[in-house]
Amino acid sequence: MTRHCHRCGWEWTLPGQPGRGDSCHRCGSDLKVCLNCISYDPKVAHQCRDRRADPVAEKHMANFCEYFEMPKRVHVPKAEENSREKTARDQLKKLLGD
User: Fold this and answer.
1) Sign of the Cα pseudo-torsion (55, 42, 51, 6, in order)
2) 44-92 pLDDT per residue, tens
3) Is the backbone of residue 9 left (phi > 0), alpha (psi -120 to 50) or beta?
4) What string of DSSP letters covers 58-96?
C-alpha cells in the first residue's frame, strides 16, 4: 500500500502528507488536490465525504483544505480501471457489426 499521484501514478515516498506547493515529479500535477484525498467521492455532495471541509470547485488544483489526507492504496493504472467501459464498447461494436 503506497501513495500515488492521481494523474500518472508516480509514488509519493516522502514521509507525511504533501503540502499545497508539492507537485508530481513525473507529470507536474499538484498533489494536495481533492482527487488525491481519501475523502474524495464523486457520488456525494460536493464530491467530498468530509462534511467539515469547505466546497472546492477545482478538484484537480492545489487547495487549502485542512482535512486533506492522501490515501495509501494499491495503484491501478487507468487503463485497467475502465475495463467495464471497454467491455461495454466491445459488446456495442459486436451488436452494430463493427
Assistant:
1) negative
2) 989 999 999 999 999 999 999 999 999 888 777 766 556 777 888 889 9
3) left
4) -TTS----TT--PPPB----HHHHTHHHHHHHHHHHHHH
Amino acid letter, residue 47: Q
| Domains identified in the chain, total number | 1
Question: What cell does 63 get?
Answer: 487547495
Number of residues in the chain: 98
Structural domain that includes position 98: 1-98
pTM of the predicted protein model: 0.71
Mean local confidence (pLDDT), 31-48: 93
Please state, in angstroms and rounded to a whole number, the distance separating the CA atoms of residues 67 and 37: 9
Provide the 10 A C-beta neighbour count for residue 30. 21
